[in-house]
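User: Some background: our group keeps a shared notebook of sequences we're curious about, and every so often someone picks one and asks for a predicted structure to add to the entry. Today it's my turn. The entry only has the sequence so far, pasted here. Could you supply the structure so I can complete it?
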Amino acid sequence: MKIAFDHTIFFMQKYGGISRYFLELQKKIQLTNSIKICCPIYLSNYISNRKGVLKLLKLKKIPRYSTKLLNGSNNILNEIYFNFWQPDIIHKTYFNEYKYNFKKAKKIINVWDLSHEIYHDMYDKPSNWRPKKNSLKDIDHIICSSKKTQDDLINFYDVDLKNTSVIYQGTPNISESSLDLNIDFKYFLYVGSRKKYKNFKLILKTFNLNKNFLGNFKLICFGYEKFEKDEIELMNKLNINKDKIKLISGNDEILASLYKNAEALIYPSLNEGFGFPPLEAMKFGCPVIASNNLAIQEAVGNCGFYFDPRDEKNLANTLEKFLNSKDERELKKKDGFQRANLFNWDKTSQDLLKLYKKILS
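Assistant: Of course. Here's the predicted structure to add to the notebook entry:
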C-alpha cells in the first residue's frame, strides 16, 4: 500500500500540532508500508532532515502576495509525482480545495473541530458560513478527532455517517525534562492560544472574583502570543496585578518542566476537537481543571475537575474544590497519568491503517 501525505500543513506551518500528528503517523506506518510526505515547497522546520519526504525548496517565510502561486505550484508538482508514483491513498494534511486529478487514489482528510462554524460570530461570519465545504468535496472519507467532532460535522455539513470515522490522536510525544526553570512560586498553568473560543479571559474574570487565587499563586501562560491590548485593558479594569501573570515561550523541554511543577493546568476552551494540552498535562502528572466541553471529556474522562466555561463563578468554585480536596486531587492525578498512556501513536497508526485497508477493499 502506497500512502501520500500532501503538502498542505507543511506549507502553512513551521511548527504545530497538526504537523506533528502526521510526522508521528509517518514514523509508525513507514515500518510496514510505503508512505511519503509530499511537500515540494515547504515552511516546516520538522522535515528538513527527515527521510521519506519529497521536498525541493525550503522557505524561511512566504513572500508577500505569493501564497496562491506557491500553493498552486505544490499542487501541480504533487500531481506530476502522483502520476509517477501511483499512491493508493492521498491523505490531505489540512483543508485544501484543490481536487487532485489522479483519480485512482482514495482521498482522505481530517476534521479536527467545528469551532469556526459553532462560533461564527467570533469571526464576523453569518450562521450559514461553511468554510470547509469546498475542501470536503471529492473526499472519500473523513477522519474525526472525537465523537463530538463527528456529530458536529454531520450536523453542519450533512455528511453521511458511513463516510466518517473517529480515530483518537496519540498523546503528544514531549520528552521528560530535568530542566530547572528556577521558579520559586506556586502557579497555575495555561497553554496555547488565548484567542476567541479559547476563552482565556474567563480566567482573568475568575481571579477577580477571588483575589486569594492570585494572592497565593501566579498564572503562567505558555505560548508565543504576546498579551494583546484588550487583555491588558481587562487586567487593568479588574485591578489584577500584572506581576502575577507571566508569559513564557520556548521549546518542549520548557513546557515539560512547567507541566511537572504546576499546581494544575486550567483549560477554559469553549470548544475543542479533542484537546492536546490536557493529555500532555496528565502525562506529566499535572492535574487538569477543564471546561466541560464534550470533546475534552472524551479525552480526559473522569480524571479532570470540570467547570462551565461560560461561568466564572463556576470556575472559581471548581478551583476552590480543587484546592480543598487533596485526596481527590491525588487520585485524579494518578488516574490521569494512566489515561494519557491509553492514547498512544501505536494505536492511532494501527487504527488508521485499518481504515486505509477498509477504504481500499
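Suggested note for the entry: The longest strand covers residues 106-111. The radius of gyration is 21 Å.
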